[in-house]
Amino acid sequence: MEELYSTRVEELFWGGLLLAITMAFHGMGMLFTVQWTNRLKSYFPAPPHLSVGLGVLITASWLILLVHIIEVAVWSNFFVWTKGMPNRSVSFYFALLQYTTVGSQLNLPLRWRLLEGMLAIAGLMTFAWSTSVLYTLAQDFQEEQLARHDARARKGPAPSAPTKPKAS
What we know:
mainly alpha; 168 residues; single chain
């Protein structure tokens, strides 16, 4: 006979706590990302060259990815701690797939089943936040590059040397 599932207060408590930890890590991570990219941009003249601007965006993307990986690891470690997953490798794989809402054939034990959906909610919320941070940085990059382009266009072509009138 198949066991029936019912939501438990303990499951809601742990899910809420894990979501709060995820959001706290994400908030700190996004602030660090914005501060670090601003500091990096300050080392270069404004508006920065195209390659510098792209380098800053790529670095920001790496930092954001690192923050997401840490958040997945928090959930993964919880699943190993509660014996919901057999080992860290399987647990991290499962948590990453749930966090990105891809889903997997793996499932938590019935007593933790609600956490699968709560993990996906955490992923959706943090990806939305990350997207807004990356969008803001990308918009700054585009505005800087357009300002650089406009400044070059205003200078126009270099004036040519005056020509001497031809003697007849």
